[in-house]
Design goal:
heterodimer; A: Aminopeptidase; 10-stranded mixed β-sheet; B: mainly alpha; two-stranded antiparallel sheet; 2 strands; 71% helix
């Protein structure tokens, strides 16, 4: 019962040690957390991927797909059709093909009412066909989807995936072993189409009401178990990149990822993760440092894309509905020779994956849902990476605890030291102290922190955050009335908002009270720590990056005598404002990716990109309910503001001086 | 004085206003659907269902949704009929009144402490003077108790979620106020109502008995009080029986509480164990879990804290809120609101900060993990149970800390601040 022992037994030592060493301890914890995380990329410290779900039985059947000539034929016809429809899906051709194969074929209309600026409407139309399972009622389904990109689209084409999808549909329709419906889905407008289709399939609205009108579906299958999204850019695929990051950083079950990699290996197509090939066994001679470096860069590529919370493929929108999904992105070899295609291999990969999924007896529930991938063959599970985050967030808690203990000790410290110094006279000195105590009673009352004030500061800052979250629609309306475009008016609106908030500390009436201000600091530390832990449960990458950035700065906030120090603290904390962080990141990114342009042009380009990033964040939160924007406005900015107020804490408690003087008199 | 009253009114008004605003906002539905707030025992949804079934002339316990005693249901029926769609006002008024009752209870308790200190002053050690309580120490806590109830987020959510725990808390506060003022009727009747609703408060018979025995020094009154509670309870049970002329409700209310058939996750510890357990061990573990709540701490605590029935009641309430079969945040919040009564012990509390952090983190983490488990389908029950386990641990640490601080202060009062064994500094250890 060590923890429940007498307060004076040992605890005194522990508290004293905490008060004395907590600055060092926090730094140590933070660095340990970072190092822990970095080390995880080193392959002896993570684990190889393996199958947990036995029902998948991957690759046990002989592949029978050999309709590659048909796929090639579909591909050629599609190329011809696409010339006629420069801006949309060639509906009649695709519908006719699906019907010819003998599937239930439907279209699906949806409308987007653009929420910002002047009201605009966009419409779109998806095509889907359902292969009804031969051996079961339509209770479960699998999805194979392709984002259709018309020739006018700037992204790489996906037309080979449509061809292979049709060929696979024809092949699958002849087979008798299907026990789950297969839905072949061709969507328009990238993620918007999939989102609308999924909302219509489940008849729910995920974003704000009235923005994405998902319409209705005429035909449905059963509960969707898994989805494979295809983005093949060429008819001759030389390597397969597997994309997993979904909305809000959600990931599919690791078993599905394993299935995809295993099938690619079986058919002899190299699989990559984040477009980075796995290190080959014979490459290992390069030394552990190079090996770690390579894995770490792959890992950080995943962390960066997961942290944004934006899906990096259409698969990402399935995750919210409890559907495991990933994207297979096929790239051609660097030098493409002739008009040769390898549809037969791709078809066999798809056949393998879908037949395995067909074997599933229950939803994906084994294996991991929380993981990081340093390569497509190794993974880091939640149990390994969470301690890193706990160490980083723990630094905040330790600092809060240390500061709190210090605050509690202040009035007692003088009497304590007396106790130790003269135990013999302790009785008399105690009497004196107690006499002193009662006479100082009134000042003691003042000294205590003011709960009401602190509470209202926290309430107000968070209310401001909520107001900020709901402001974009009004800001853009106001802006468009004066002729500004949406991006610019939001950016300028936010900057003005933030600048106005900077003067908030001037209105804090308890600014001069050391105790109250320290309590604000402690509570802000706790809030940040809690937020980081919760964030990293949802989206580890975001939590980790935010932690790496904010924890050291928050640890720096200590009231100090030196004027220079306090100015440095304030400037550093200003730099940590989410708006500044975003602008800087985008600018740096712009300068790195576009080189050789004049400085001014790049700067402008970066600023425009920043504005667009903010608008994307807001629109994403409205349509897909991506909560990155909400978290930043509702939690991070209020928290930032609380720390900003705490920065104006007086350096030393005045009453402490008094007390020291008083105790001297006593002596 | 005028200023004091004004701030006093402002406090109650703010508390009530915040509840009214939340109760009429769109968040009400989200809050009332949270499993941490609405359990099968106290959810208003189930009451509505029961009322509807009754109005159709169907026996309301038939669908295994309702677990409130028939008498309570009849009262809710009257209340809902009287208030119509403004029935949320009942909850808000009830909660505000609870805060006031707790204020009275705390005030009475403070007076009791003060008298106690004056009476025993010459028995205390000489150097213990500076840990004696001053007038201000007696004056402030009651207001803090009321504030801690009014602005406690757990209590606010509990009220806004329209749980019947609001009424349970009201009667519990009434019981505490009656207990502290030594009023026989106002301590027995509310307790009987609490027992009839929740069963577990039967443990509070011990503080009731001890209060009248040790403080009022009237053994006869003490026995009368216990008998009165039992009589009132029997009366309520019989009233329930006459509502439908059947004893089936016993199985649906008390049987439901004791045998824990509904394993919907909640903040307690029962559901996870009984989901995981082999069926034939079930009765063994039901017995051991229920004995853990009722008997295990009841007797030792009653013996140790027989002189301070308020502390005894609070510690029993806290243990109930931690270990009972269907706990909710409203129970935890009620105990937390009572703690400012022992504000003078806070200096001795050791893990206050740790417990505070634990409460904050678990409160934020529980909905997170719940979302990941239920909606995203990526986390699982173990994550959620881990969080509730941490929450329960924090509660246990808190109450242990308070009790230990109390004992330590008592010890210091009696033997002085300097502890020495054979001329060396000594330390108190709990082993």
């Amino acid at each position: 019962m060590g923890l429940l022992t007498d307060p004076s037994a040992g605890q005194g030592k522990l508290t004293k040690a905490l008060v004395k060493y907590h600055p060092k301890l926090t730094v140590l914890l933070y660095i340990a957390g970072i190092i822990w995380f970095c080390l995880l990329a080193y392959s002896p410290l993570n684990a190889g991927t393996y199958f947990s779900e036995n029902a998948l039985l991957p690759g046990l059947v002989t592949s029978k797909f050999r309709d590659d000539t048909l796929a090639k034929q579909y591909y050629d016809e599609l190329q011809y059709e696409m010339k006629k429809y420069n801006n949309s899906i060639p509906y009649p051709w695709i519908l006719a093909k699906f019907r010819q194969i003998g599937l239930d074929t439907y279209t699906h209309n949806f409308t987007l009412n653009y929420p910002l600026g002047r009201s605009q409407k966009f419409t779109g139309k998806n095509v889907y066909a359902i292969l009804r399972a031969a051996r079961a009622a339509s209770t479960e389904a699998l999805v194979m989807s392709v984002p259709f990109r018309p020739p006018s689209n700037i992204h790489l084409t996906t037309s080979p995936s449509v061809a292979i999808m049709l060929a696979f549909a024809k092949f699958a329709n002849k087979e008798k072993y299907w026990s789950k419906d297969i839905i072949f889905l061709i969507t328009e407008h990238e993620q918007l189409g999939v989102q609308a289709w999924l909302e219509a399939y489940h008849n729910v609205a995920c974003g704000q009401e009235g923005i994405l009108e998902h319409g209705d579906l005429q035909g449905r299958g059963g509960a969707i178990q898994a989805a494979i999204n295809l983005e093949f850019h060429h008819i001759n695929i030389a390597k397969m990149d597997i994309k997993v990051e979904g909305l809000n950083g959600q990931l599919p079950n690791l078993d599905l990822f394993n299935l995809a990699t295993r099938m690619c290996t079986k058919e002899g197509i190299p699989h990559t993760f984040k477009n980075r090939e796995n290190q080959k066994k014979d490459d290992r001679g390069r030394g552990p440092y190079d090996e770690w470096c390579y894995s770490f860069r792959t890992l950080m590529a995943m962390v960066a894309s997961q942290a944004t919370g934006i899906p990096n493929g259409n698969h990402g929108l399935f995750h919210r509905f409890g559907i495991q999904a990933l994207t297979l992105e096929g790239f051609p070899a660097k030098q493409v020779r002739g008009n040769h295609s390898n549809f037969i291999t791709i078809g066999r990969i798809l056949e393998g994956i879908f037949r395995s999924l067909n074997n599933l007896l229950e939803r994906f529930h084994q294996s991991y849902f929380f993981y990081l991938l340093p390569s497509s063959e190794r993974f880091i599970s939640i149990g390994l990476y969470m301690p890193a985050m706990c160490l980083i967030a723990g630094a905040l808690f330790i600092k809060a605890c240390g500061t709190w203990c210090k605050l509690q000790q202040n009035p007692l410290s003088s009497s304590d030291s007396q106790d130790n110094d003269d135990n013999e006279d302790s009785k008399t000195s105690m009497k004196k102290a107690s006499g002193d105590h009662s006479s100082n009673d009134d000042t003691q009352e003042e000294e205590n922190f003011d709960i009401v004030q602190i509470g209202s500061i926290f309430l107000l800052t968070h209310t401001i955050g909520i107001v900020l979250m709901n402001s974009p629609t009004n800001i853009t309306r106001f802006g468009s009335a004066y002729g500004f475009n949406t991006e610019l008016s939001i950016y300028i609106g936010f900057i003005i908002f933030s600048l106005v908030l900077l003067i908030a500390p001037a209105f804090v009436t308890i600014r001069s009270s050391y105790k109250s201000m320290t309590v604000i600091n402690i509570l802000s530390l706790l809030e940040l720590g809690t937020t980081l832990i919760c964030l990293s449960m949802y989206n580890f990458s975001l939590g980790f990056l935010a932690g790496t950035l904010y924890v050291p700065l928050a640890l720096l906030i200590v009231p100090s005598n030196c004027r220079l120090c306090s100015w440095v603290q304030k400037i550093l904390w200003l730099l940590a404002h989410p708006l500044v962080v975003l602008t800087t990141t985008v600018l740096i990114y712009t300068f790195i990716s576009i080189t050789g342009e004049p400085f001014k042009e790049n700067m402008l380009r970066g600023l425009v990109a920043t504005q667009q990033a903010i608008v994307f964040g807001i629109v994403d939160s409205m349509i897909y309910s991506n909560w990155l924007y909400s978290v930043i406005t509702c939690v991070m900015i209020p928290n930032w503001l609380c720390f900003w107020i705490a920065l104006f804490c007086p350096s030393k408690p005045k009453s402490d001086d008094k007390q020291v003087a008083a105790s001297k008199k006593n002596d | 004085m005028d200023k004091k009253i004004r701030s006093w009114i402002l406090m109650y008004f703010l508390g009530a206003f915040a509840r009214l605003w939340l109760a009429t906002s769109e968040y009400q539905k989200i809050i009332s659907d949270r499993i941490e707030i609405s359990t099968p025992l106290n959810s208003w949804k189930r009451i509505t269902e029961g009322l509807h079934l009754t109005s159709l002339g169907i026996y309301p316990y038939i669908g295994d949704t309702l677990h409130e005693p028939p008498v309570n249901l009849a009262v809710y029926n009257v209340l809902v009929a009287a208030c119509g769609r403004y029935f949320y006002l009942i909850f808000v008024i009830c909660d505000t009144a609870t805060a006031y009752l707790l204020y009275i209870a705390a005030k009475k308790y403070m007076r009791h402490l003060q008298n106690n200190q004056i009476d025993n002053k010459d028995r205390y050690a000489k150097d213990a003077n500076d840990i004696l309580l001053k007038d201000s120490d007696f004056a402030i806590p009651p207001t803090y108790v009321a504030a801690a109830y009014l602005f406690n987020p757990y209590i606010m959510f509990n009220c806004v979620g329209f749980t019947t725990t609001v009424f349970g808390n009201f009667f519990m506060a009434l019981f505490l106020a009656g207990l502290m003022s030594g009023n026989l009727l106002f301590s027995t009747l509310p307790l009987a109502i609490c027992i009839s609703q929740n069963l577990y408060p039967i443990l509070l018979l011990s503080p009731l008995f001890l209060q009248f025995l040790n403080i009022e020094k009237t053994p006869r009154k003490a026995i009368t009080a216990v008998i009165m509670v039992l009589m009132f309870w029997t009366l309520l049970v019989f009233l329930s029986y006459y509502m439908h002329n059947s004893w089936d409700f016993i199985n649906d209310t008390y049987g439901f509480i004791l045998t824990v058939p509904d394993l919907r996750p909640n903040t307690g510890l029962f559901w996870y164990f009984f989901i995981e357990m082999f069926e034939h061990f079930r009765s063994l573990f039901i017995y051991s879990f229920q004995i853990n709540v009722t008997l295990l701490y009841f007797i030792p605590l009653s013996i140790r804290f027989r002189k301070d029935s308020m502390l005894l009641a609070t510690s029993l309430l806290s243990l109930m809120a931690t270990f009972k079969s269907y706990p909710c945040l409203g129970d935890v919040g009620f105990v937390l609101a009572l703690l400012p009564c022992w504000k003078h012990l806070f200096n001795y509390i050791q893990q206050g900060f740790l417990v505070g952090c634990c409460f904050i983190v678990t409160t934020a983490l529980a909905p997170t993990v719940w979302y990941l488990w239920i909606y995203s389908g990526s986390a699982n029950a173990n994550f959620y149970f881990g969080v509730t386990l941490a929450f329960a641990t924090a509660q246990i640490f808190l109450i242990t800390d308070v009790l230990f601080a109390y004992i330590k202060r008592e010890f210091t009062l009696k033997y002085g601040r300097v502890r020495k064994i054979d001329g060396k500094d000594a330390q108190l250890m709990l082993e």
